[in-house]
Amino acid sequence: MTKQTFFENVIIITGASTGIGRHLAFLFAEQGAWLTLAARNVEHLMEVSEKCQQLGGKVIVIPTDVAEKSQCQNLIEQTVKKYGRIDTLINNAGFGISSRFDEFNELGLFEKIFQVNFFGSVYCTHYALPYLKKTHGRLVAISSLRGKLPSGTADGYGASKHAMTEFFSSLRNELVDSGVSVTIIYPNWVSTGISGRAIKADGMPTGKISSHEKGAMSAETCAGIIRKAVAKRKRDVIMSFEGRLGLWLRLITPGLVDRILIKKTDHTK
To answer: What is the pTM of this model?
Structure first.
């Protein structure tokens, strides 16, 4: 990767107001990228935008709820109106749930996590794909290690990430002759505050950082790994040795791995 890789590269980042998305915006801005930052929190987006401009990037802010198809369409159209093209789409927006499946009294929240984590990425990709084909661009999906492995709770988060994994893996095959690369990222725990914002079955955030998130990889480090992977157009990036080992062991002894995952589930978050 050189400093020219993302110079004047038109990059859309969803979920850009906090965590991994925020730090991705900073890293791409340092390379002179032309950014579109999307999220629901306008105040936080404006803070990220200001710093990105100081770092050397060109920026537009488009408040977007990716669960709304029309807002995803507007995100893509406004980007093309401003910059004339799209080179890179990073589907990063998402949220977590902290609940057992049998604690849901109704399934509205379960449906919501699919609308954001899965359909949000599908909507944005649908509207951006014609433009990415024109530029032989980069398509990026920020999944999760839970998009590869189960956990001790069927809260919907892992299922939404598994859906992302299958969709983007199959789309990669569909696009093999298009010049568009598809990179899927599988972070383990990253220190972004996601566990404190995770929604309980009653619709309220936990307000507590999970024991797994404490001392986890920083969002800045995670963003750096992602930027390098996107530059090289890598296929899949599993970010932890623990994750790679778990995937290998599950091929041999799935029951053992499931028991370990159940034991590791943090029911105190």
So the answer is: 0.91
